[in-house]
Amino acid sequence: MNKNFSELPNGYLETIQKGIDGVRHFQPGMTRGIGTRQENLDLLRQEIQTADAIVIGAGAGLSTAAGFIYTGARFGKWFPDFIRTYGIRDMYSGGFYPYPTKGIFWAYWARYIYINRYLDPPKPVYEDLLSLVQDKDYFVITTNVDHCFQKAGFDKDRLFYTQGDYGLFQSTDPSTHKTYENETWVFQAMEAQGFVRTVDGAFEMPESGQIRMEIPKTLIPKCPDDGAPMTMNLRSDDSFVEDEGWHKASAAYLDFLRKHETQHVLFLEIGVGSNTPVIIKYPFWQMTHDNPNAVYACLNYDEAFCPKQIEARSIVIDGDSAAVIQALL
Q1: Cα dist. 26→49, 52, 93, 315 in Å?
Q2: pLDDT (tens digit, 9 = 90+) per residue, 45-56?
Q3: Which of 89, 285, 304, 329 places its Cα 20 to 30 Å from the Cα of 17?
Q4: 3-state DSSP call for residue 318?
Q5: How many helices (H) does the chain have, and how many strands (E)?
Q6: What is the rounded distance in angstroms from the CA atom of residue 286 to the CA atom of residue 327?
Q7: 9-65+122-162+245-328: CATH homologous superfamily?
Q8: The 3-state secondary structure of 131-194, one letter per residue
Q9: CA distance linking residue 328 with residue 125, whole number of Å
Q10: What's the predicted TM-score (pTM) here?
Q11: Distance between the two ends of the chain, CA-based, in angstroms?
């Protein structure tokens, strides 16, 4: 490992600061944009075709549009015992439940990781998006941790997963500055609970419907380097490990932005909500504001808007991102 990787340019922090510094420009308010839906679809299609570069910023709404739903039937299919026993109402909140043993905690997380990282989403939204931009000079920054971009075929050297990856563990001691792939462990933990592998390698419920809600103590993950308990490599506090791959992706993102900073750039924001706007939304607004050749596009369900100052160079489309992407095709 390159021990100096943390000295690489940090596109994550630099663009966040740019967005924070620029928010004052947008105080007069927001707008739902101009033009009809069809006019905006036609304009976005044209921008995708003519832009010198495309920066895709993706949030949870894109994976939701692809069918990664954390409630309802999908939740009930994989966690019926947890729902009955602990009254958990959705997959996300179940990840924070104070389970009585580590074996139960990790049984829950093994299922959670398996269906949200190692299964493909039900709808080919990511593949459709790739077909729109695969011949363009593009880069992707995302707060999603489900690896859908890479599974769909996006170039891994053009991807920056800012908030971690369901497919990675880290030590609870963040001074062990590494991450560890967890696929083998996840599959072992699924088998230990009684899930059955099919001929194509996927897991399914046994015919009896009987599964175990706890894994053996011997399967509880420990860090191979320091012996400490493992945890998910997901950004929740300052213990999140930004490993070598993370820093290289952050530097590549910044390099891409600098290379195209005066060119015709399309900042294509998809499914980014208001929980963490400083990572994608605010920087996209500011970089569009600073570059008169840039265009900002926002695809979102019920949260599609842009600052009034860049309205003339913005494309705002409200609705299901899967339907919008399909329409663009």
Answers
A1: 29, 26, 34, 17
A2: 999 999 999 999
A3: 304
A4: strand
A5: 13, 13
A6: 28
A7: TPP-binding domain (3.40.50.1220)
A8: HHHCCCCEEEEECCCCCHHHHHCCCHHHEEECCEEEEEEEECCCCCCCCEECHHHHHHHHHHCC
A9: 12
A10: 0.95
A11: 42
